């Protein structure tokens, strides 16, 4: 019986590079906000390290910089800060091979928090730092080196502007010295989260506003000239709350914006959703997409256009770090989630496409309270492939299906499969073939008896073949040679002068006798005897018979009459008698 063993491994095909997951930090809450790939294929991530003293009621942080190799193993770490709290929010490459960091500080500057700009070399050694702000709360969230070698920083300010918080834009020279600053906003709250220099030499800012728009809070988009003077602004949102966290300039000189929305007119359900907005160069909406589930909160923190013209987004999904790949019109191609447990507070804050076509993500994980979470994936958002090992012993003629492969021979096989989340799984399969058992047997049975082989019963002489299923599930082929010892019946005629003992019986009277005997194989034989008791010899025996033709011995040779010897008497009517005359 042939069987097909189907291995249902809804298991990982594209895999642009290897992946891994790494955690960094101490025993308290730490997280990563920004990440870059370095020129040697490694990575540098910026975040925050909890520096609070044990038992202290005050929580303090330092800006935390981690440099790794291509495998995510730490090469060195740096911290930046003083006696207060400092936060590192954004890191970018600079033309000299170093880095520029934007954040905020309470240890330096003029007020509660000041916008903070730090220039470091390629080894993370500080070259200079500058603060910007007034006596109140001022913060830096995003920075970029500008075409003139200086820097543009955006964030928020209470010290300057029109309201409680305003979007804060600062232009500094190559040494971090402020050249000018601008604020944007109304009477309530505005925040700037991301800034880029445009192809016209101006700046595009994304953030959020309470003062303008349709709802409680809307995404706020500001386009300025090279001096920071507003050229136009846009708001995006409905009746709920919308925030914009990331903006990138796309290949068509338009913009892609990533954030979150809770407006039911925009989403497909209740709750917060990742919101992706594509605009033209004038900020007019071309299309929008939402991602996530209505039963939990979702948020998009960073977006980048990918080499295929699509987009990669990271953020938050139901307590797990969220990675979304969309095509050039925002249609979801795949998603991946990462984290320790559901609702553990894992979140991605920045994502970049890497030179091998994969992605690097920086964020936080709920492991150990909270740690910097650095994730390298391949082009499908998978980290390392799942390796699965299995062994099968199958019967001869059977086969095993692994993915789209069918195996029916002994050997070792390797298959790459794709599981439900699209990640590669490598399946190592060892197959051994149990050859069929071939059995030969011979039986000699009596006429009327039978034997059973499997479900078959045989009572006729012959050669038979049966295929049976044995205890290990494999087929056994049994060849049976059956012989029948047929019941025999013989007839003897004896002529004796007085008496004889025949088969244990003394006989001295003429007549017919019969006895049933059992032979050496246990089968019955019937022996018949016609006994004539006489003293006259052969003439008395043959007087009532047809004409005797001849007498032969047991070998068929013609012979004269002899006593005490079995002889065959052949008559002209065809009758043959076996006789022995005993005296």
Describe the protein:
The protein is mainly beta and 583 residues long. Among the domains are: 4-9 and 388-434, no CATH class; 437-485, no CATH class; 488-582, no CATH class. The strands form 13 sheets. It has a six-stranded mixed sheet. It has a four-stranded antiparallel sheet with strand order 2-29-28-27, with no helix packed on it. Strand 28 and strand 29 (371-377) form a beta hairpin. The radius of gyration is 50 Å and the shape is rod-shaped. The two termini are 70 Å apart. 36% of the residues are buried.
Q: What value does the Rg take, in angstroms? A: 50 Å
Classification by helices and strands: mainly beta
Low-pLDDT stretches are 4-17, 536-543
Distance between the termini: 70 Å
Instruction: Let me know the number of strands.
Output: 47
Main sheet overview = 6 strands, mixed
Mean pLDDT: 86
Widest sheet: strand ordering: 43-44-40-47-46-45
Shape: rod-shaped
Individual helix count: 1
What is the beta-strand fraction? over 45%
Q: What proportion of the residues is helical, as a percent range?
A: under 10%
